[in-house]
């Protein structure tokens, strides 16, 4: 086997493991990967793309809802948070999901400062995850180009 | 009419307002060898079902052959949706004489026992917590098989090509009673008797509704300019 491919595969494995260990991803992400096959080779990339589109849209909604001079409609903020919690749960974006749970409680408590802070964290978190996953896809591309196959990573 | 392989593929209608979740449920169902149609609201779901019904009742020659193409074997819907919730959709389906026999499954990201029992009481077959997994979908096969076989039986009755059923034949051979006492039959045979009677009623209702464009119970959604009016 080409040693470059073998090296890349090892790095890839370690990278994926670290994403799980650092709490970026959970077992729902593993499930997503298992649904990808030769018939649907880009499934994971497609779902993640939809997820990140959702993030942009929903974070925008939350920012607008919180940016009211006067009374803030926390139920409106909460509705967007609920949707983001749902999406992040569906793709295995563990940290984003955790933040949404906290965010939801802050909305219910009508804690304005708390909500604004949490929104900033959500914004940073989804962008961080996006960068990490783009690196993951880059790794995969490099492995294939080096003539190797993308390894199945056992996270247990 | 021979049984083509495609006829045994279950057709599932999936309803979810989340694009991510629609993508996911679509892949899960495809992976379970189902044909999938996804819509983003309860209204669109009813429209999809109503549209098919409209085609059937407008075209009498398509009476027996088209049901395969338009048949929906299961509806899986999200609970939390704006406008019409999954529960609202479930209710509407169960109130419809035509659609009440399609099994409905509810999905929700929230584990609320009161919600779950309300849905099951209203007639949902299963309640899945999101994110839905492939293992969850394996529970659906029996439900879909039941309606598939029922529809196939209906067709055979209408076509007059009803297959001989060994169990029923056996009991008739006993000769003395036309309808043997339940105690004399094995449970399976009793079930088949009941199902057969149910299907004959259904078949009569279906034939009547197709010919007259009327439901035996209540008005079906009619198409006005492509939009189904609410029941």
TrEMBL record, chain A:
Q: Which Gene3D superfamilies match?
A: HPT domain (1.20.120.160)
- Native species of this protein? Brassica carinata
Q: What Pfam families does the database record attribute to this sequence?
A: Hpt
Q: Which UniProt keywords apply?
A: Acetylation, Cytokinin signaling pathway, Cytoplasm, Nucleus, Phosphoprotein, Two-component regulatory system
Keyword Acetylation among UniProt keywords: yes
Q: What is this protein called?
A: Histidine-containing phosphotransfer protein
The UniProt entry's GO CC annotations, sorted and at most eight, read: cytosol; nucleus
Copy the domain comment: Histidine-containing phosphotransfer domain (HPt) contains an active histidine that mediates the phosphotransfer.
Q: What Gene Ontology terms for biological process does this UniProt record contain?
A: cytokinin-activated signaling pathway; phosphorelay signal transduction system
GO MF terms here are:
histidine phosphotransfer kinase activity; protein histidine kinase binding
> Which first-to-last residue range defines the signal peptide?
none
> Which segments constitute the HPt domain?
40-147
Location in the cell: Cytoplasm, Cytosol; Nucleus
Taxonomically, what lineage is the organism?
Answer: Eukaryota, Viridiplantae, Streptophyta, Embryophyta, Tracheophyta
Per the record, residues carrying Phosphohistidine are: 82
From TrEMBL, chain B:
Q: Which PROSITE patterns match?
A: RESPONSE_REGULATORY (PS50110)
Q: Which CDD domains match?
A: REC_typeA_ARR (cd17581)
Disordered: region residues = 196-231
A GO cellular component term found in this entry reads: nucleus
**Localisation:** Nucleus
Q: Which UniProt keywords apply?
A: Cytokinin signaling pathway, Nucleus, Phosphoprotein, Transcription, Transcription regulation, Two-component regulatory system
Per the database record, which ranges form the Response regulatory domain? Answer: 11-145
Q: Which residues carry this modification: 4-aspartylphosphate?
A: 78
The entry's family comment says:
Belongs to the ARR family. Type-A subfamily.
Entry function: Functions as a response regulator involved in His-to-Asp phosphorelay signal transduction system. Phosphorylation of the Asp residue in the receiver domain activates the ability of the protein to promote the transcription of target genes. Type-A response regulators seem to act as negative regulators of the cytokinin signaling.
Protein name as it appears in the record: Response regulatory domain-containing protein
Q: What is the organism field in this record?
A: Brassica carinata (Ethiopian mustard)
